[in-house]
Amino acid sequence: MTNAQFNTEAVTWRRMIHAQPELTFDTKFVGNFVAEKLQEFGLDEVHKGFARNGVIGVLRGRGPGKTIGLRADMDALPLAETTGRPWVSKIPGKMHACGHDGHTAMLLAAARYLANEKNFNGTVVFIFQPAEERGAGAKVMIEEGVLDRFKIENVFGMHNLPGLPVGRFAIRSGAIMAATDDFTIHLRGMSGHAALPHAAIDPIVAASQIVINLQTLVSRNVDPLDSAVVSVCKLHSGTAMNIIPDTAEIAGTIRTLNPATRQMLRERFHEVVESICAAHRINFTIDFEKNAPAVLNADIQTEVAIRAATDVVGESNVEGDTRPIMGGEDFAYMLEARPGAFMFIGNGDSAPLHNSNYDFDDEALQFGVGYWLCLVNVALNTSA
Ligand SMILES: [Zn+2]
Ligand SMILES: [Zn+2]
């Protein structure tokens, strides 16, 4: 198979997956397609059913060595596509707006090449994961024993990045994406007439104080050289202009790069809400949802990733100390369990991720496939 044929095939797969988006754990169509292909390529083992529709492929090389896991996510988003491309989503209200179609196609193409060539020592485990966007599919796969059962020593992941030119890679050692914690605060006061505030307990004034005071969590508690975000994104209360309402609800998210900062902000968040509610005689409950930790790249594997990307596109096209992004990613759970590295691959001047006009750039496929192949070479054939 020539290089051109190889790339054409990856493009065909990508567009086919793009047209059939599936949400969270329901990645049955793409999961079956991936499993069939891996079997056809002659992998040593193919397993279905991890995290419901996840797929694992095991490929042993020509001799003994380490075992590494390469991960691609497969799920799409609940969004109506507006690209109008020939391969536009055939499923109303669902689309691949985060490029996981491209991630799946790239890892599949790499599996085909490696199964043909067997030009490495050790073992490559291909991890095709559902539910990256919601449901923490990576966490579920770990809980189901994927890393232990297949003896995976290091893990590698990749995500496309709009704004980074096609043919460029970006990574950094340490935190590259943020821990994401979400909160909802339910306030309960006592309703009454707007003209008789002394006979009511006003949750709106307390809610307003809370929103303003949450702004000081970062500005007055976090080291200015560290990074964190607290955003209040929902504030609901009231029904009429002459009624002090019974309840108010506040919801938002906390993003941090540093585990100690994450813990500190969580504590300070509770202190601020509790003390303001006490001051206003408001009853409250807090739903605090602790999601994925920060995506923490290990030093050695980041070096391996940089060497691999450099082999594909040359030193001048690899940013080895890129700025972190305050978005979250459930690959963080895998990096919490095993040392590894998460790489950004350029998607050029496309629409942003999670935008209805976004599309994975097929020109990027060849670079992503090349990265996986070089990564296997550097990680398994050198003393890295
Ligand atoms: Zn996404
Ligand atoms: Zn994504």
From TrEMBL:
Transmembrane segments: none annotated. The lineage of its organism: Bacteria, Pseudomonadati, Pseudomonadota, Alphaproteobacteria, Hyphomicrobiales. Mn(2+) binds at residues 98, 100, 133, 159, 354. GO terms for molecular function: metal ion binding; N-acetyldiaminopimelate deacetylase activity. Residues 183-278 form the Peptidase M20 dimerisation domain. It comes from Phyllobacterium endophyticum. Its cofactor is Mn(2+). The Mn(2+) ion enhances activity. Keywords: Hydrolase, Manganese, Metal-binding. Pfam families: M20_dimer, Peptidase_M20. PANTHER family: METALLOPEPTIDASE, PUTATIVE (AFU_ORTHOLOGUE AFUA_6G09600)-RELATED, PEPTIDASE M20 FAMILY MEMBER. One of its GO terms (biological process) is diaminopimelate biosynthetic process. InterPro entries: Amidohydrolase, Bact_exopeptidase_dim_dom, Peptidase_M20, Peptidase_M20_dimer. This is Amidohydrolase.
